[in-house]
Design goal:
With about 400 residues, the protein is α/β, with parallel strands linked by helices. It has twelve helices and 17 strands. The protein binds D-malate (MLT). D-malate binds near residues 109 and 189.
Length: about 400
């Protein structure tokens, strides 16, 4: 008789943002007259910039003509997009990455979740705490962990982000077991912390020495405005031999509803004589049929001169929100992290995270994300997202200050 994958039973009842949506919907249904403001899930609210929409329309129109119609595209993505990415995001910053290393996909969430498939079942995996829950849940689903106890899964190694390390753990924070695979995310989701060249350098040197691999989530790199901070892990020498990088157009260019991202798997990474890039290519071309042509055209327009200017304005708009949130939270006496070079503000409220969440939802009609949803180390914190329209952020801040100040 058919049996189910029992690893799913180990998971918490629902994905963090699904649980938040459930509570929000319940509150909204009971209070239909109140205006809710969402600073919870990091979902963009501003429309796609004009030059990107124009390219998107052109792509659709090309599909309407027999002479320009396209069926299946290359699974890895069209060369015009991969080449634009390689040049603008990597070669121009001195990173040894070529178009062959780029794999276009419909989201960094899927790619960060799927990449673990390439590795043996019994490797040691390290995840940060606080953590973007996808890294953990996908390893649980794949059977790489035991049961959850006190908020942590048996078999996973947790590297703790703390106030002391500024939420940037280093290899020294690993237990003696070490790790074969490490997930890192900078600018960090959820804490907004950024890693310096020296800090990333420590991880790269450690991975090269140990023969380990780093899965580096750079979905928020576009928010880095400080020129001293690395945007890509490949700005660190040697990273092309030990790190895979995940990028997304979601937050960079407003693509959360349009769907386009990419993963970089450098040809220089070899494990047991096998190129990791070839393995990912095998997996990607078996399980994925590529992103639609009009969407890839729209994504390529992000790299045009107008696209660069317009997306920079978009990012600055959200960074302006992050500044408003950061200043208001600091003014009422909370310690904060992030909010600069990041769209997330990590606020230490010092009380139970879900309690603060409920207080703000029910008392102020504002949605934030409870820190404990990202792991044990997030208890006592909330994450406030800067993704919303300015007037909503100003109104939400007024309400938060009244409720918590
Ligand atoms: C978040 O709010 O953490 C992100 O929006 C989640 C995601 O990008 O999948």
């Amino acid at each position: 008789m058919i049996r189910l994958n029992n690893n799913f039973n180990k998971l918490q009842a629902s994905y963090l943002f699904v649980e938040i949506a459930r509570r929000v919907n319940e509150h909204a249904a009971a209070n239909p007259e109140r205006k809710l403001i969402k600073l919870g899930i990091g979902d963009v609210t501003r429309p796609l910039p004009p030059s990107i929409i124009k390219a998107f329309h052109e792509g659709v129109d090309e599909q309407a003509e027999a002479s320009s119609f396209r069926g299946y595209g290359p699974e890895q993505g069209y060369a015009f997009l991969r080449e634009a990415i390689a040049e603008a995001d990597f070669t121009s910053r001195g990173c040894p990455i070529t178009a062959d290393d780029i794999f276009v996909s419909d989201g960094a969430k899927c790619d960060t979740g799927n990449f673990q498939e390439l590795f043996a079942e019994d490797i040691t995996i390290a995840v940060p705490d606080p953590v973007y829950p996808v890294y953990v849940d996908t390893n649980v689903m794949a059977g790489r962990t035991g049961e959850a106890k006190n908020g942590r899964y048996e078999g996973l190694v947790y590297i703790e982000g703390t106030e002391e390390n500024g939420f940037v753990p280093s290899p020294a924070d690993l237990p003696e077991t070490g790790a074969d695979l490490v997930y890192l995310c900078f600018p960090n989701n959820p804490t907004g912390a950024t890693a310096t060249r020296a800090q990333l350098g420590e991880w790269v040197d450690w991975a090269l020495a140990q023969g380990s691999i780093i899965l580096f989530d750079a979905a928020y790199e576009a928010f880095i405005t400080n020129p001293e901070l690395p945007k890509s892990i490949y700005e660190i020498p040697g990273a092309d031999k030990c790190a895979v990088e995940f990028r997304s157009f979601s937050k960079t260019a407003g693509f959360t509803g349009t769907r386009c991202a990419f993963t970089v798997v450098p040809g220089a990474i070899e494990i047991d004589g096998v190129k990791l890039r070839d393995m990912w290519n095998r997996r990607h071309s078996t399980k994925f049929n590529g992103v639609s042509y009009p969407v890839q055209k729209a994504a390529a327009a992000v790299y045009s001169p107008e696209g660069k200017k317009e997306t920079r304005e978009l990012i600055n708009y959200y960074l302006g929100n992050a500044k408003i949130i950061s200043e208001a939270m600091t003014e009422i006496g909370f310690q904060i992290w992030g909010g600069e070079n990041s769209p997330y503000v990590w606020v230490k409220t010092g009380e139970d995270s879900w309690e603060t969440f409920d207080k703000l939802l029910k008392g102020a009609d504002v949605v934030v994300t409870p820190g404990s949803g990202f792991g044990n180390m997030g208890e006592g914190f909330i994450r406030i997202s800067a993704f919303n329209d300015r007037e909503n952020v100003l109104e939400a801040i007024k309400r938060i200050v009244k409720a918590l100040g």
